[in-house]
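Run: sequence + zinc ion -> complex structure.
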Amino acid sequence: MKFELTKLEHTKNPHIKWVLSELEKLKKQAVGAANEELANNCWRESEALQLTLIYIEAFHKIKRREYREAWYDLERCEIKCQFVMRNSSEEFCISKNIYFIAHQVSNLQSLYPYCVFSSPGMVVGYYECGICNHKIRPRSRCAHVKGKIYNGKLCVHVARDLVLKEISIVSKPVQKYSVVHNDETLDFSVLEHLMVVLEEAFEEWDVIRTTKKFPIDMFCRVELESECPCKNGNKFGQCCSNKAEVEIPHLDFVFRRDVRSLPLDKFPY
Ligand SMILES: [Zn+2]
Ligand SMILES: [Zn+2]
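>> structure
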């Protein structure tokens, strides 16, 4: 069955649920009949469909300024993209827009102001193979490779006998769910500006990061004790306050459509 899935209204199509449940049924039959190729194809189709749904929803959550909810969806997309790409042909990924979604998810994540995450430090008793339940030990592994699919099922290593040892605060977390910030205190204006231009999740756009130099006079309102506008993490007074120019990070957005009329320039000082 063919149906369009690029816009938010398409995600409400009742056929989608039906297709997902049919894929699940077909996968079960394939597993029963020891047809691994068919079972894996069902997994791919189902994952690609769910990924597209989550991506479209995440995009529109950002448009509606539900930034935190969208962030969790983007993280789910990132993880799904990795597993689908690892287990599918290039042709499949192109036909299902997987590379496009992976690229745009990473672009959108990069425009978030989040930079502090909590990360639990766990001691794991042992890992178990999610496919055959084998207890994995240094000299005793099963034939299954973590992250690959077997009979339509993704192989994960399940951690058992977990003991929480500590919670640390990190800037580059393994998983991005545990944002420490309070969104109310953050500046989402870059995403907001971008979303003024973008209408749909599958529009092509990109972001180019450069720097721009501005004369020091433009920063006369920045206090010496506050963060330097050059964003290298130092205080203004110990960084660029005595320079003639301040070089600050600059974002250029590239769109397919002509959007020159939209006011996108913003100088925050
Ligand atoms: Zn195994
Ligand atoms: Zn500076």
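>> summary
Residues 228, 230, 232, 234, 239-240 surround zinc ion (ligand 2) (CB under 6 Å). Residues 36-63 form the longest helix (28 residues).
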